[in-house]
Design goal:
This protein is an all-alpha fold and about 300 residues long. It is built from twelve helices and no strands. Helix 6 packs antiparallel against helix 10, helix 6 runs antiparallel to helix 12 and helix 11 packs antiparallel against helix 12. The N and C termini lie far apart (about 55 Å).
């Protein structure tokens, strides 16, 4: 329906608002309806299916553009169909557990923050530092283009990253139910450090794509695990609030990380950008290890 750039921008802004609104309730709902002993498995499956959609959606859009001879208006008119199907599943397929009677005020009170444990706040802090190391994936495309990847092949970067991400999220979540989740989280941080070294020092596309695949692996090892850790360490009655706080601080950290990455790229080059990411990964690793010692 848009006939100006401003309307396109508004549509994108509303879309991102929708993502912000649904993220915390979705994760809280998952934590509510699954047994604690399979919580990691559930979040791993959620992350895996979410990532499958992240690369199947664009592939479907490319196919529709091809068969419709680049009729992008038609493609945009068709894209609400999956959203309506999701609403249908929520209304008729999901049975939410009963909640305690809410207090008189549904607004977050400052005293509620005191109900969160030190372990929860450490997860939030480490998650934020982790996001400082994980800037926008657009920089992966820029690095591949820098070493000669053709413009028409640029989508391969996100496809490969998301394929590895989706295929590793569920096994990692499943494994986290039988071993300590922090082991997988810290392994993911080490994988991210290795990925950044390949991306920083790679001299051809083989090493760059290896770094991109490792980037996807670290996502698979950490994103579902972080969601499960939030649920592990927050009060049941404040799960939605806990995910909201976690997502808020993580999003602010990601915004800062991408801004910093862009500045470093322009002023010092791509190598410095990825080395900074490795440094923040090492900081997150050290912080989480320190938090485990404090909480013993």
């Amino acid at each position: 329906m848009a006939n100006t750039v401003g309307l396109v921008y508004c549509a994108r802004l509303i879309d991102r608002m929708g993502k912000g609104i649904r993220g915390a309730p979705r994760d809280a709902l998952i934590a509510d309806i699954v047994a604690p002993e399979i919580r990691g498995q559930a979040f791993g499956l959620r992350q895996s299916l979410d990532t499958v959609g992240a690369f199947l959606g664009p592939l479907l859009a490319i196919f529709l553009m091809w068969v419709s001879h680049d009729n992008y208006h038609l493609v945009f008119w068709l894209t609400p169909i999956p959203a309506f199907l999701s609403v249908f599943v929520l209304l008729w397929g999901v049975k939410e557990t009963e909640k305690p009677t809410p207090s008189k005020s549904s607004a977050l009170q400052l005293r509620d923050l005191g109900k969160f444990s030190k372990a929860f706040w450490w997860v939030v802090v480490v998650g934020a530092v982790f996001q400082l190391a994980r800037f926008s994936e657009a920089f992966l495309i820029l690095r591949a283009r820098e070493l000669g990847l053709g413009l028409e092949l640029a989508p391969l970067v996100l496809i490969i990253m998301n394929l590895v991400y989706s295929f590793t999220s569920y096994p990692a979540g499943n494994l986290s139910d039988s071993i300590k989740r922090e082991w997988l989280l810290m392994a993911g941080l080490l994988v991210l450090i290795l990925s950044n070294f390949f991306l920083a020092f790679g001299t051809n596309l083989f090493w760059i794509f290896l770094g991109i695949a490792l980037w996807g692996l670290h996502m698979g090892l950490t994103q579902g695990i972080l969601a499960a850790l939030v649920s592990d360490h927050c009060p049941i009655e404040l799960r939605g609030t806990a995910y909201g706080l976690f997502n808020l601080l993580s999003a602010l950290a990601l915004l800062l990380a991408s801004s910093l990455a862009g500045f470093l790229w322009d002023s010092m080059g791509s190598q410095t950008t990825f080395l900074a990411s490795a440094g923040f990964s090492l900081l997150g690793f050290a912080l989480y290890g320190f938090s485990r010692l404090l909480l013993r």
